[in-house]
């Protein structure tokens, strides 16, 4: 692919905002399209312990049917999940598409599979359905993949839900439902159900997919984690557990309410009665019995929001797979709704955290963050999680970082849990706040302290009366912050906004990054923009001050979808002691350097929230620290694509990078769109890092020019004209948020 770009200024050679740039050099090899079709979507990358790279992505196979994408608001060809693998060797760099295996279609439902007849064209007579009800192909949303020791686990949600009773043996009549979207030409779109498949040979082959939910409720936000013992001296070697979570909405995916970015249908906006579901599998790869490889227990409802059913005779928009309106009395209801669960595992403890509407009966439109930690085999069925957020604020998008008690050390950090919190409703300004789990994973181990004696409650009045200590505010006044600002209330500076938080936890060190802008109104007016800031915590020395890592000075460009990732553990066979210089080390590149931390991010045009066309994706960037975050390499462009603002007809977004244990080689995938044809591909590249001033890596490649570095990029002719009305319009919008939120708060 030709590099079609205009010059960008790189502000990576000077120190700014407290950030020191190192002499570290980054070389990025020439990217290429790894997917085979024209619908490559949301690629995910994993690396096995022996170095095998595994990429999972969505794409449309030949003969795929047409479907309607509710989130995208358009018809497109159905997608399946595909997997490709490559193991670097002396003769194979994985920097060529020919080095990679043929694609494996894991889901295999986009062409012939359908589990119901739905009026998915609605009143749109130009639809591929011709406006006539018909079979709906088995489209998938996106792949999610995790590695636990020798096992890789894929989860996804699909419109193909053939089994209506997962407990009774055999395939029972489908129970799948659908919802009519009045705003989308009256289309009836089927609900999704959750699926999983696993591989025990590094992605070379995959198990027959297993359906985890029925489609009676609409599933999304699936994820997995696990703990499989890799210590060859342990009696539990190659045994362990896999845990999976997702959410199900009885009224279907809800569209947005124009309060925040996007059009909804992502699972953030939910109906009352939406719950988090949980399933686990025990793993035993030692006895040769394939039935024990992945022994799956039936899924259970983890949260407790479903409290009843609707009243028959009420108008509803839910239909079954035969096209009949479902009786209201069979549709689950509730006051609160859970959304966007995250799942993790430490030893035999499963950890689930999610956001949940407060169930206040209309008194408060905000959300709690709820947290559960339990033995993986005894989940608290239909139970309230502990409220760990400020109950008087609106909290959402919880994420956490975990490590084993051994890695944490005595009195160490076993979990860092952080979320977006503020007084405003969806889309309003907020800060990133954090608690640490010290010497344990339960609410009682949280620092700052949680009111753990009373936090497990579904009662709104009890929840808002909790007396938890305020979580640490790690984003308040980021440009000038000191440790004193950790105690700030989230409205101490009510103009600033932080979002898109990510982190890495390694021993005593924890790094948390987030996008930050000092004034949300000025962002809308292109007088400010979002940059990626990083803050480090050390168990012995506490918090450092935030630093601006991306340093984009052009106010017409925002950082988007930042990533932060560290190095994986040392190979137990190639580097058993963890010391690259040890006598028993056979490959020093497989020895972990825990001081290496990478940051990557996408970029996007900064436009008013009232712009009907919305922002445009641009390019992706990467930088690295080899000294635990003290200094960083000057950012370089990871993608060749850099978007229309720079005269390029391709844009890159949603990068998914990782590195090997020594941190000197990195790999990344991302989605890339041809802005002319609308075709998308899963793009791949690798790169190398050197601290000694020599050319990094052993395989020279073409660097997608440091003239397009992520620091201080400026669009020479892509700058939108400034509208003097924008500050006034934006200010009115923010004032509306503030007044509405104040009015809705319970006193």
Structure description:
This protein has 747 residues and is mainly beta. The protein has three domains: 1-37 and 587-712, no CATH class; 60-255 and 272-346, no CATH class; 351-368 and 392-483 and 490-548, no CATH class. It is 4% helix and 37% strand.
Cα-atom radius of gyration:
25 Å
From the spread of the alpha carbons, the general shape counts as: globular
Total helical segments: 4
Cα(first) to Cα(last) distance is 60 Å
Question: What's the average pLDDT?
Answer: 89
What share of the residues does DSSP label as strand, in percent?
Answer: 35-45%
Proportion in helices: under 10%
Taking pLDDT < 50 over at least 5 consecutive residues as the criterion, the unreliable ranges are: 1-17, 258-262, 695-747
Number of structural units classed as domains: 3
The chain-level structural class is mainly beta
Largest sheet features: 5 strands, antiparallel
Care to count the β-strands? 47
Keywords:
747 residues, mainly beta, five-stranded antiparallel β-sheet, 4 helices, 37% strand, disordered C terminus
Topology (elements, then pairings):
Layout: E1 20-21, E2 25-28, E3 32-33, E4 41-47, E5 53-59, E6 66-69, E7 74-77, E8 80-86, E9 104-105, E10 114-118, E11 134-137, E12 144-148, E13 151-158, E14 177-181, E15 187-190, E16 193-199, E17 210-211, E18 218-228, E19 239-249, E20 275-284, E21 295-296, E22 300-301, E23 308-309, E24 318-320, E25 332-333, E26 338-346, E27 349-357, E28 367-375, E29 386-387, E30 394-402, H1 405-408, E31 413-422, E32 431-438, E33 446-447, H2 460-464, E34 472-473, E35 497-506, E36 509-517, H3 520-524, E37 531-538, E38 542-543, E39 547-548, E40 557-566, E41 597-605, E42 617-625, E43 631-632, E44 636-637, E45 650-659, E46 665-674, E47 680-690, H4 726-744
Parallel strand pairs: 1-43
Antiparallel strand pairs: 2-47, 3-47, 4-5, 5-8, 6-7, 8-9, 10-11, 12-13, 13-16, 14-15, 14-24, 16-17, 18-19, 19-20, 20-21, 20-22, 23-25, 26-27, 27-28, 28-29, 30-31, 31-32, 32-33, 32-34, 35-36, 36-37, 37-38, 37-39, 40-41, 41-42, 42-44, 45-46, 46-47
């Amino acid at each position: 692919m030709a590099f079609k770009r205009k010059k960008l200024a790189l502000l990576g050679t000077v120190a700014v905002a407290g950030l020191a740039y190192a002499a570290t050099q980054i070389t990025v090899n020439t990217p290429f399209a790894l997917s085979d079709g024209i619908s490559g979507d949301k690629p995910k990358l994993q690396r096995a312990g022996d170095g095998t790279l595994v990429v999972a992505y969505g794409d449309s196979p030949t003969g795929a049917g047409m479907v309607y994408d509710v989130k995208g608001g358009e018809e497109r060809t159905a997608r399946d999940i595909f997997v490709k693998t490559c193991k670097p060797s002396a003769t194979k760099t994985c920097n060529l598409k020919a080095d990679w295996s043929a694609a494996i279609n894991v889901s295999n439902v986009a062409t012939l599979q359908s589990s119901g007849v739905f009026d998915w064209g609605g009143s749109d007579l130009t639809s591929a359905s011709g406006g006539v009800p018909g079979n709906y192909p088995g489209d998938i949303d996106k792949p999610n993949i995790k590695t636990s020791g020798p096992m890789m686990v894929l989860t996804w949600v699909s419109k193909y839900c053939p089994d209506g009773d997962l407990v009774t043996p055999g395939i029972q009549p489908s129970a799948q439902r659908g919802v009519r979207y009045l705003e989308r030409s009256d289309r009836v779109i089927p609900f999704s159900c959750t699926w999983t498949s696993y591989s025990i040979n590094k992605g070379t082959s995959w198990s027959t997919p297993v359906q985890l939910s029925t489609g009676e409720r609409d599933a999304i936000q699936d994820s997995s984690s696990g703990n499989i013992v890799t210590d060859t001296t342990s009696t539990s070697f190659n045994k362990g557990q896999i845990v999976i979570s997702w959410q199900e909405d009885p009224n279907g995916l809800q569209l947005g309410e124009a309060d925040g970015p996007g059009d909804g249908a992502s699972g953030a906006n939910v109906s009352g009665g939406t719950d988090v579901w949980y399933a686990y599998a025990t793993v035993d790869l030692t006895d040769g019995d394939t039935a024990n490889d992945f022994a799956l227990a039936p899924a259970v409802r983890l949260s407790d929001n479903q409290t009843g059913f609707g009243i028959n005779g009420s108008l509803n928009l839910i239909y079954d797979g035969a096209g009949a309106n479902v009786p209201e009395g069979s549709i689950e209801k509730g006051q609160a709704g859970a959304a966007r669960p995250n799942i993790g595992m430490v030893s035999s403890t499963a950890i689930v955290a999610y956001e949940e509407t407060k169930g206040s009966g209309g008194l408060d439109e905000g959300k709690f963050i709820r947290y559960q930690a339990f033995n993986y085999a005894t989940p608290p069925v239909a139970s309230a999680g502990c409220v760990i957020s400020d109950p008087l604020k609106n909290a959402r998008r919880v994420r956490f970082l975990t490590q084993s008690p051994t890695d944490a050390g005595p009195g160490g950090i076993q979990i860092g849990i952080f979320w977006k919190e503020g007084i405003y409703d969806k889309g309003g300004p907020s800060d990133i706040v954090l608690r640490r789990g010290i010497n344990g994973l339960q609410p009682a181990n949280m620092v700052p302290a949680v009111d753990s004696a009373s936090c497990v409650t579904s009662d709104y009045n009890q929840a808002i009366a909790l007396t938890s200590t305020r979580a640490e505010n790690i984003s308040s006044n980021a440009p000038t912050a000191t440790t004193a600002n950790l105690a700030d209330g989230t409205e101490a500076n009510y103009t600033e906004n932080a979002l898109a938080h990510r982190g890495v936890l390694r021993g005593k060190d924890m790094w948390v990054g987030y996008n930050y802008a000092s004034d949300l109104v000025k962002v809308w007016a292109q007088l400010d923009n979002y940059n990626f800031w990083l803050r480090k915590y050390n168990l012995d020395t506490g918090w450092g001050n935030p630093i601006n890592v991306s340093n984009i000075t052009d106010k017409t460009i925002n950082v988007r979808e930042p990533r932060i990732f560290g190095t994986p553990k040392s190979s137990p066979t190639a580097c058993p002691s963890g010391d690259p210089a040890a006598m028993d080390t056979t490959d020093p590149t497989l020895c972990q350097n825990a001081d290496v931390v990478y940051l990557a991010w996408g970029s996007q045009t900064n436009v008013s929230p009232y712009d009907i066309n919305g922002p445009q994706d641009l390019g992706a960037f990467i930088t690295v620290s080899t000294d635990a975050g003290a200094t960083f390499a000057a950012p370089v462009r990871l993608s060749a694509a850099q978007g229309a603002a720079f005269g390029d007809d391709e844009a890159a977004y949603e990068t998914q990078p990782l590195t090997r244990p020594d941190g000197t080689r990195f790999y990344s995938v991302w989605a890339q769109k041809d802005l002319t044809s609308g075709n998308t591909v899963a793009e791949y590249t690798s790169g190398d890092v050197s601290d000694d001033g020599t050319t990094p890596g052993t395989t020279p490649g073409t660097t997608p020019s440091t003239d397009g570095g992520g620091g201080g990029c400026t669009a020479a002719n892509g700058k939108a004209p400034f509208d003097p009305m924008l500050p006034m319009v934006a200010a009115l919008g923010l004032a509306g948020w503030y007044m509405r939120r104040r009015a809705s708060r319970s006193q």
